[in-house]
Design goal:
Keywords: Cell outer membrane, Coiled coil, Membrane, Transport. It holds the Pfam family Secretin_N. This is Secretin/TonB short N-terminal domain-containing protein. InterPro entries: NolW-like, NolW-like_sf, Secretin/TonB_short_N, Type_IV_pilus_biogenesis. The protein is α+β, with helices and mostly antiparallel strands. It has 2 domains: about 130 residues, Phage tail protein beta-alpha-beta fold (3-Layer(bab) Sandwich), CATH 3.55.50.30; about 60 residues, Ribosomal Protein S8, Chain: A, domain 1. Helices cover about 30% and strands about 25% of the residues. The chain is built from 6 helices and 12 strands. Strands 4-3-5-7 form a 4-stranded antiparallel beta sheet. Strands 6-9-8 form a 3-stranded mixed beta sheet. Strands 10-12-11 form a 3-stranded antiparallel beta sheet, covered by helices on one side. The longest helix has about 35 residues. It starts with a strand and ends in an 11-residue tail after the last helix. The N terminus is likely disordered.
Length: about 270
Amino acid sequence: TPIVKVAQNQVDLEIELKEMVPYHVMQTDKEIRLDFNKTSVKLPAKKIPRTRPGKALVKEEEFATETKPAISPINITPTKSPKKKYKGEIITINFYNSDIKTVLKFIATFTDKNIVWNPDKVKGTVSMRLKNVPWDQVLHEVLIQNDLGIIKEGNIIRVMTQEKIKALEKEEEEKRKAGQQRIKEKLAEQEIAKELEPLITEYIRVNFTNAETDIKPHIEGIKTERGSITVDKRNNLIIITDIASSIKNAKIIVKRLDIPEKQIMIEA
């Protein structure tokens, strides 16, 4: 029979149990939930006699009688904002020898989060009493007790063993290294192809600027190691010998730089 005593913003809830069984308590700003596992104590079969309605007087002193609590009282105090990295809603919980799957279900229901786990791999029990703690910190503590961890994929939180997480991280690292190796091999193949590509020579005429001073410095950086660039000063020509792609890029640069200077017309 629960007995409630109210005094100065504090509520003491006392419950007598015939047998100590696993339980858990979850407290939010609006409610307190208590859940007890099944007891092994069998209740004696009793026949309830029929009685007529009547009135009974209960003295105030009898109602206020206290018994020794079987469960530690929960003190409700104003919540405080977390100072650490955890940003979840503040909750108060009390778990005693509870199955971790039940605890994860409670957290998922309270937070409205998508929490997924493998029932064959995720095993263990939880015993803890946390007061005014962010729910994500509660989840962290629950996982630590059972050597578990989480991986977030979008809006899904996957709970798995630390061994599984390390295996996945190793797999991702191997994929990353393999990708980098493929890029290196592709670049190496491109360099080999350039070495084997035949050289051609092109004459690029420069019409409005000086080929030696205005154009040549800008195309020196794009030639390959086998390429060469010279200037015919008398005809103002760029003579470039290189692979086709380098010559194509050189022509683009010349076209952008070889433009006439703007002139101003002054009328008398």
